[in-house]
Design a protein that fits this description.
It contains eleven helices and no strands. α2 runs antiparallel to α8. With about 220 residues, the protein is mainly α. The protein folds into two domains: about 90 residues, Endonuclease Iii, domain 2 (Orthogonal Bundle), CATH 1.10.1670.10; about 100 residues, Orthogonal Bundle (Endonuclease III, domain 1). The protein is elongated and about 55 Å long. The model has no long low-confidence stretch (mean pLDDT about 95).
Length: about 220
């Protein structure tokens, strides 16, 4: 099976499944930004445990811009790197209020100017909030892309994986493809004990090939 056939086979399967979305819970684009920043090196489940009270007391970007770091820390102290994230959330909110009139920018360069926002976070915001053809590559997507033979062995960092996936996935599928691959990695093609017996791609998985990360 060549790479084009492999992509078509995998994408055709996912297209027939219920449309996926992020498992982070939010009501506004700003709340999505907060949740994604908090999710860095942390599970969505844990983030969803702390954001209800945080969003209740600080529902808008203006509320966050006027917050004190010590106060925000108390809400997110069970999250990884709470001190840094409390600082980033407040500083990002102040920039959004001051420079963007309280609106979350959809432009990649403008998003990357916000403290705590890296390329993965910016891509999630673009795809989920604005429906752009942005491919965020986290550890799950990086792993699954290599295991399924969707990327090359030389695609050895998230940016290279992002570019390779975008080269082969139709633009209209890219926002969903992020979730397809992420959820497949989170629940089926897991890091330590992948559930190959439940994988719809087991028969075409190049797990024994040299470039496979599944040994």
């Amino acid at each position: 099976m060549n790479k084009s056939d492999r992509y078509n086979h995998i994408l055709d399967y996912f297209r027939q499944q219920p449309r996926p979305t992020t498992e982070l819970e939010f009501q506004t684009t700003y709340q999505l930004l907060v949740a994604v920043v908090l999710s860095a090196q942390c599970t969505d489940k844990r983030v969803n445990m702390v954001t209800p009270s945080l969003f209740h007391d600080y529902p808008t970007v203006e509320d966050m811009a006027n917050a004190d770091e010590a106060e925000i820390f108390e809400y997110i102290k069970s999250i990884s790197y709470p001190n840094a994230k409390a600082h980033h959330l407040i500083e990002a909110a102040r920039i959004i209020v001051k420079e963007y009139n309280g609106d979350i920018p959809s432009d990649m360069d403008l998003l990357l100017r916000l403290p705590g926002v890296g390329r993965k976070t910016a891509n999630v915001i673009q795809a989920v909030a604005f429906g752009k053809a942005a491919m965020a590559v986290d550890t799950h997507i990086y792993r699954v892309s290599h295991r399924l033979g969707l990327v090359r062995k030389t695609d050895n960092n998230p940016y290279k994986v992002e570019l390779e996936l975008k080269k082969h996935i139709p633009e209209e599928d890219i926002p969903d493809a992020h979730h397809w691959l992420l959820l497949h990695g989170r629940y089926i093609c897991t890091s330590l004990k992948p559930k190959c017996n439940k994988c719809p791609f087991d028969e075409i998985c190049p797990k024994l090939l040299e470039n496979s990360k599944l040994k």
